[in-house]
């Protein structure tokens, strides 16, 4: 099955951090940083192009949407055509798109470049993990993969801070240009030091990729453009109807495909389906709130981009330090209860932020909500992968892990689209009061999603690994 980690080296190597590990980790770090590096640059980009909330939503969503849809296919392409070859192709796409983003003359050219960036990231991220697993002796895989995941997590956490640092002291285009020298060093070294490997040569589910892409794109288009065009506009309701119609078609295609991108047996596992839904709802509220929070700190409170990045650091960076410590808590009360606790704290944090928001809120009033969100993310992200992998048979762990990433990125995409739509409907950029009103309404919508997810998590029970034919 595409995405399954196979072919790990036998025992014998004494080095923990090999060249394949270091090169793959740098690439994964770069991709993770770009997931959120743009959020602190959004006010500067808005002023450069004179765009509204819709343009900013597409700048973020174009990356996360293509990343989400093509992530499973990236792993399959590597298995079939060679993991190093496809990994390098992804790096090439990513760096060319980074240059295109920096040189974009219009906001829509930037959106197109971000979409290509996401496509490159969808090839880099899953194959970086597979390359590390292939190059690592089995006895050291747990330690090495844990370190690799930690590096990727740090990239996501410091993305807003790095973006803020760059935009404070240089034009915003440099958040993309910094990828070029990194890739210039990384690509020749990867060609020389990473051994080529292949996996199971399953057929690519092109029909599934096309249907899932069209469904998600139609939904996101309607959500982003609903306030601007009007929810009764034929284009808006037409794309909503198209998304609703494409979803069951996609499900049927997965049931009939010889090698589906998302095996139906996975979703028939109640524990797996619940866990990935929780992943989607968590990232929906967290990253939707971050999308608006960095703009609030800069546009309404007068923070510099760097100050805005540091302001959201409690929510973004705490998981790097706390998440590894959640294992002991999970062993005492169970992973499902840890997830429920994290989601409940997420709801509390979003509610606290909503109650604190005014046109001139002082940062100390917002800090408790941000800290609650940071602890919530720590509990949740420290356990969600274990819960997902624990819900499937061992031989399907690779595809389950990839599916979890897909749902995470989908949650980010929908969070930016939906919370952005709520912000525009309830307020907007017209005045400090309208910005505060819109931001508060969006936070309350994210809080509602977290409450729903908490109730869903409480229904999750520890189940034996599923067996699929």
Q: What does the secondary structure layout of this molecule look like, with pairings?
A:
Blueprint: H1 19-36, H2 42-49, H3 53-81, H4 83-102, H5 107-134, H6 141-169, H7 174-177, H8 179-193, H9 206-229, H10 234-256, H11 264-268, H12 270-300, H13 305-311, H14 313-322, H15 326-333, H16 335-356, H17 363-389, H18 397-426, H19 432-458
Descriptive keywords:
globular, mainly alpha, 3 domains, 469 residues, disordered C terminus, 0% strand, Growth Hormone, Chain: A, disordered N terminus, 19 helices
Low-confidence stretches: 1-14, 462-469
Query: Briefly, what CATH class of the largest domain?
Result: Mainly Alpha
Number of helices: 19
CATH superfamily of the largest domain: MFS general substrate transporter like domains
Number of extended strands: 0
Helical fraction equals over 70%
Q: What percentage of amino acids are in beta strands?
A: under 5%
Quick one: biggest sheet?
Answer: none
What pattern of helices and strands is seen along the backbone? HHHHHHHHHHHHHHHHHHH
The Cα radius of gyration reads: 21 Å
The domain tally reads 3
Structural class: mainly alpha
- Gap from first CA to last CA: 12 Å
Task: Tell the overall outline.
Answer: globular
Indicate the mean pLDDT.
85
**CATH architecture of the largest domain, please?**
Up-down Bundle
CATH topology of the largest domain: Growth Hormone, Chain: A
